[in-house]
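Page 42, continued from yesterday. The earlier attempt failed because a stray header line got pasted into the input along with the sequence. Redoing it now with the clean sequence only.
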Amino acid sequence: MSNLERERAHLVRQTQEKQLSQSQAAERLGIGVRQFKRLVRSWKQQGDAGLVSRQRGRPSNNRLAAAQRDRIAELLRDKYPDFGPTLAVEKLLEREGIVVSVETVRRMQIGLGLWRPKRRRQKRLFQLRERRPRFGELIQIDGSPHAWFEDRGPRCALIVFIDDATSRLTALRFAPTETTRAYLEALRSHVLAYGCPLAFYSDRHGIFRVNAKDTMSGDGKTEFGRVAERLKIEPIHALTPQAKGRVERANQTLQDRLVKEMRLRGIATMAEAEAYLPVFMAAWNQKFAVDPRDTASAHRPWTGSAADLDAALARREERVLSKSLTFRAGGSMYCVKTAGPGTALRGAKITLHHHQDGTMRVHYKDRVLVCTAYKKLPVPSEAEDEKTIDARVDRLVAAAAQTSVASVAMATT
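This time it went through. Structure tokens are written below.
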């Protein structure tokens, strides 16, 4: 007998010895009085054996049929070998039409040697910060370099924007590396969809913050910081990764779920992945997003056009025109075209707007000047950091492999 069955037998005897009423015994067992009376009747007929569950030793009424268990085991082994139990259950229902519990799948995966519980390590305790009350008050941003396409494509980075109040993904963007341009592209899609948030929460990477201690020139802001200032978005930098835990945990989940979703769909390029991201974001937000404490959005609506936003996102730098109305930018020499002699423009300060599409506009006061490139100049090799070096080396490896294949082809012919 189990402990529960022994307790039932003890309470039944107490009621028969008039030490306890049937209503009191039923309350202790958490059952109704009528059910307890049935237990008393069975005990009087069969003794303690009448209190033993008749289902013991028999297969469960909810047990899966052997054919269905074999089918699930085959799918887990061949199609979902590295899926966790929860995600595997979702995919079995979504793609195969099979309804099964998470615990059943977990036990089957353990039996097949596909899954085992992770050893729990003692973690450092950090003080939990309460979520912000409104959507758009604080957007956590980060980049996640990873083998997103596994062995089907090159490594790349995923730019992630997630709202602190709701855990809602507001922007995802694939890029070869984690760069300012990639963040600005994600920022553009966020602003067009929701408006301008009050603040960004990021790490202290050089994209967001000037980390040089002895900087004597400049305004002390990075290009991303200047764009945020133009859009009136406050940049906030975390001291530790744990401080921006919302986006860090989202990166871990994305590296599990998004990788497997793209594998199931055969996605192997960034273009294909970009087309799929809106579908994935909608499913993510439906599953993981929570309601904010305050339903009013903190975003400031973007009232300008998409072209106005592109102008705000453009990288800007100043130049001084020479006497011949020329200037240097990006490894090229440019000459400004004017209708007249252009003497008023000699020595004038101009502002170059470098747009995300690669175009450049030359602004002088309230007008745009027409210019043409007439000479190329040598450009030094770009410096790399820990987040961009892998992409550059991968390009070198790919180029070397292509050269090797071409050499072999020429030798055989």
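Notes: The two ends are 83 Å apart (CA to CA).
Reminder to self: strip header lines before submitting.
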